Amino acid sequence: DLHIVGGDVAGEGLVGRLKTFVTDLFYREDHDLVVNTSAMFGGTERLGTVRYWIDTGKHVDHFHYFRNPETADRLLDALKEQEPETSFHVLERRQAEVTGSTAYQKRALDKDRPVVYVLPGTMGSHLKVGDNRVWLDKWDLAMGGLKKLKVTAADVRPEKPIGSGYHALMEYLSQSHQVIPFAYDWRLSLTESAAALRKSLEETLEALPSEQAVRIVAHSMGGLVVRMMIATEEGRQVWDRLCQRAGARFIMLGTPNGGSHAITAMLMGRDPLVRMLDLLDV
Question: Which structural domain, as residue segments, surrounds residue 148?
Fold first, then answer.
């Protein structure tokens, strides 16, 4: 049998609640300062019984499970198999699911289903400096990581769309399409991102049969990247090739075609997210 011991930090007092509030803004769910509480239930599906205990309080965090009597005692109960029914709750069996924002991807293009590109919005792509993810890595940002993302910084490259914002959408689309996530460096000009998109679409169109549909779903700034591509001579040629295929589609989700006040607020440092990052950045 599997026994899960986890926790959810809960601050007490003004200072404790403020600290918890800041970390809650990052996780947007229960956590122990390092691991999302929901992630403690993941893993390979078990045939046997799964039991769990989640502790909550100011004494709970990722680094003190063994000092906390509530969790330490249950650790011993699980090892000795003493009264697990009273010490733990039984986890109800549910359909197994694959987590992570790349589970829907395949190694090679599937020529039996239409292809859909998914472009995230502003700040919606993870960014890496070398092999180190800086955006969106809460701990790297808290340790001054924003300085690594200056526009003049070298070796910054997009990794993939941020899972918390786009995983559910891409999983849903994968039921009927082959999903190609297109992350881009949102710090740079639309022209550079549009050129990268054009190159990727060219490669995809070359690899697929002429009758296979290629579609684009773009959120927020992603829609502007597509429009910028279409506005260039080379990009227009790729767009025309895409539109010649039956079933071609381009869907924009909340794209600021008429501009956005939120972007102005970000540049002026008045956006709530920018203010929060400023508090954390040392």
Answer: 115-278
